[in-house]
Design brief:
It contains eight helices and seven strands. It starts with 40 loop residues before the first helix and ends with a helix. It has helices at 41-51, 70-88, 102-114, 175-186, 192-207, 221-224, 243-246, 248-259; strands at residues 127-129, 138-149, 155-165, 171-173, 189-190, 211-220, 235-242. The strands form two sheets. Strands 5-2-3-6-7 form a five-stranded mixed sheet, sandwiched between helices.
């Protein structure tokens, strides 16, 4: 007898849904964030610093380890990572016209403005001999201060007064140079107590006066914008060196004069 044929049932073919296209990041890299061996530029710079056993805390200047043209590449890298932060905050930067270029704006703000004192050389301070042998109290200020708290990266906004008592052997610098040096020191993430000490150290080294004094009065947005949200609190601190520390009459004269401003 003939063998009966087996009927094979055809199984229905399931359609696999195509995956939605992967969204491209809103940040277009210029290819400048990758350097030696395909490493991110920040890693390359960090390795240069570590090779010299140098420090790179938030308030340190690292300009000696940055080559010409690399700051723009650093902006690109920060923008790319800031885009990831915005995405983690669940912000639709592709369809929200207000935030489409926010990552690059923030990157440029930090590298080129707010933290610029970390990445550029100290401003040139032209010094003049004290031909007239001036030895009277000089006060410069108030100098506007714009900085950022290294704990929360919140703004620090305030004023600085600088007192200098030169000797006949002291160097003199132009008035604008006090502002430029102050801005260079303050344009970094830091705490106020350390910033005024660093500024006083630099003035002592550059001018070699009999005495130097620095007073800073600032609003801290890490207290006003967040945390206790105390809008009226300020921080005032001072550094007194040389004659300002030893001579109470000189110190009182300085503090009384800046109180009038």
């Amino acid at each position: 007898m003939p063998t009966p044929k087996k009927t094979i049932k055809k199984m229905p073919v399931k359609k696999i849904a195509s995956k939605p296209p992967i969204k491209k990041s809103a940040v277009k890299s210029r290819g400048a964030t990758k350097e030696e061996g395909g490493l991110p530029l920040s890693v390359v710079i960090r390795r240069r610093i570590e090779a010299q056993k140098a420090r790179f805390h938030a308030n340190d200047n690292i300009s000696a380890f940055i080559k010409p043209g690399e700051l723009e590449g650093l902006v690109d890298e920060v923008a790319e990572k800031m885009q990831a932060v915005l995405e983690s905050l669940v912000i639709d930067t592709e369809n929200d016209h207000n935030t489409q270029n926010t990552s690059r704006r923030v990157a440029k703000m930090y590298v080129q403005e707010v933290f610029n004192g970390r990445y550029v050389d100290q401003p040139t301070l032209t010094k003049f001999p004290n031909v007239s042998r001036l030895n009277e109290l000089m006060i410069i200020g108030p100098i506007t201060v714009r900085s950022a708290c290294s704990h929360h990266l919140c703004p620090i906004m305030g004023r600085i007064w600088i007192g200098v008592l030169p000797s006949k052997d002291s160097a003199l610098i132009g008035l604008s140079k006090y502002s430029r040096l102050t801005e260079w020191v303050m344009c970094r993430p830091q705490i106020q107590e350390e910033a005024v000490v660093e500024l006083a150290d630099m003035l002592e080294k550059k001018i070699k006066p009999i005495g130097v004094a620095v007073v800073m009065d600032a609003d801290h947005f890490c207290m006003q914008w967040r945390g206790v949200k105390d809008r009226d609190s300020k921080m005032i601190n001072s550094v007194m060196r040389g004659a300002f520390l030893k001579d109470s009459n000189l110190r009182r004269e300085f503090l009384a004069l800046i109180d009038r401003k």
